[in-house]
Design brief:
195 residues; alpha+beta; disordered C terminus
Length: 195
């Protein structure tokens, strides 16, 4: 399936998912949360070409934490991933914190970087496996810190479906934001117009 068709299918699927959820219970905070997350995922797919894998978190009684996952077929270094994580975390927190309808359902307001997790998987387009070093296999942003991992080859030298991950670097979101050249103001800046 070519890239355009998969993005189109994905966007239609997200729209249908949001519609199906919201026709059942229009005022449910879970439905609103899903719609906001789907809108964010669509923006990320359109702007960065990342594929949305899913969203979950501690959402049973209210919104305590949020976990987002994306996949990319680009081979990236830490210097290429860092601004992406800063931008995505700022944007998502902005969307949630500036939506007055979801605000009463946040366990704590504003939702902070400590309550957001973001996983970015980077997969080799040719074989579907994590790429060889020095390319990053995945980056994990959790509890205000970013961890970068590579995939070490096994003893045979071949890639495998059971990767051997090694963390090669970590930094706080504040440190990453400064390196990117922004003021640390996570979740309080405007990325684009919300409707």
């Amino acid at each position: 399936m070519n890239k355009f068709r998969s993005k189109y299918f994905y966007s239609v699927f997200l729209g249908f998912l949001g519609f199906a959820c919201c026709t059942a219970q229009a005022d449910d905070y879970g439905c609103l949360f899903d719609k906001l997350s789907a809108k964010f995922a669509k923006e990320v797919t359109e702007q960065y070409g990342l594929l949305y894998k899913g969203c979950c978190g501690e959402l049973m009684e209210d919104i305590k934490t949020v976990d987002l996952e994306f996949k990319s077929y680009d081979l990236c270094s830490i210097d290429e991933i860092r601004p992406l994580i800063v931008e995505l975390s700022e944007r998502y927190l902005f969307i949630i914190n500036h939506n007055e309808r979801i605000r009463p359902y946040l366990h704590t307001y504003p939702l902070t970087p400590m309550q957001l997790s973001l996983l970015l998987d980077f997969v080799d387009r040719n074989d579907g496996l994590y790429p060889d070093p020095p390319n990053i296999a995945f980056a994990l942003y959790v509890k205000g810190k970013i961890y970068y991992y590579i995939n070490r080859r096994g003893p045979s030298g071949w890639k495998s479906f059971s990767p051997n991950y090694e963390q090669i670097y970590e930094e706080t979101i504040e440190e990453a934001t400064k390196v990117v050249g922004k003021e640390p103001n996570i979740g309080m800046i405007k990325w684009c117009t919300l409707s």
